[in-house]
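Hello everyone,

My group is preparing for a crystallization screen and wants a predicted model to guide construct design. The compound we'll soak is adenosine-5'-triphosphate. Before spending weeks at the bench, it would help to have a computed complex in hand. I've included the protein sequence and the ligand's SMILES below. Output in structure-token form would be ideal because that's what our pipeline reads.
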Amino acid sequence: MSILEIKNLSIEFGGLKAVDDFNLSLEEGEIIAIIGPNGAGKTTIFNMLTGIYAPTKGSIELNGESLLGLKPYQFAQKGIARTFQNIRLFAASTVIDNVKMAYTHQCKESFFECIFRTPKMVEEERKIDERAMDLLKAFDLESKADILAKNLPYGAQRRLEIVRALMLEPKILLLDEPVAGMITTELDDMAKMVRELRDKLGLTVILIEHHMNFVMPIADRIKVLNFGETIAEGSADEVQNNPDVIAAYLGGGYKNVITNA
Ligand SMILES: Nc1ncnc2c1ncn2[C@@H]1O[C@H](COP(=O)(O)OP(=O)(O)OP(=O)(O)O)[C@@H](O)[C@H]1O
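Reply:
Good plan to model first. Here are the tokens for the complex, ready for your pipeline.
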């Protein structure tokens, strides 16, 4: 059975069909990319998959359970975590605090246990520290744990966003333009890290990205949107050679994005 089953997902804003009949059946451990021109509906799909927007039509099932009607924090509790197109860190907090804050929803300790710092509470804190440091290490941020998030270089801030999402212990990770603004060497590092996440943690990933040098080698499957509609789906080779995709996206104003990435 697929881990995530999305059927006929659609949303309208006024008369605008931002997403029209989007379908996706996702297997555990897959890396799927959603690509397409600006305004195609990619982020809107993420917003529906995290409870920010309620779809006009369609269904979202995680391991056979419908997620429709849940609030964003409930989507996170069920196992869908995301990063955003624009970096959203607590700039004046340290790197490690940014990461640990994400775990608070999982804490079961009572007010009493927190105030009196019971052995259970201390043990829980130790586990959170350990998990946070393990993740920072996996994303090459271990040595930056104690500096303020705002003082990290741009690429490191993007990696920190991913670490923070992973503290939620998700089954599915949604990455919205994870390499936007990064230089070529950083793209390669990020691709390696995302692949390791899948291989070591069995994580399932859906990503949105305009950098085709990042997307093509990493994605098991690619879905291409244009004006809210899915115009193609397949492997990197299939999608790159699809005339509709070339006309709508790859061959147009986005050529520079690809060759300069
Ligand atoms: N809350 C909203 N109200 C009205 N229109 C919206 C809203 N959210 C998105 N849209 C519209 O839906 C369409 C799809 O937008 P979306 O942000 O999903 O595109 P995108 O593919 O992610 O683009 P980009 O690559 O620029 O991020 C656009 O026409 C956008 O203006």
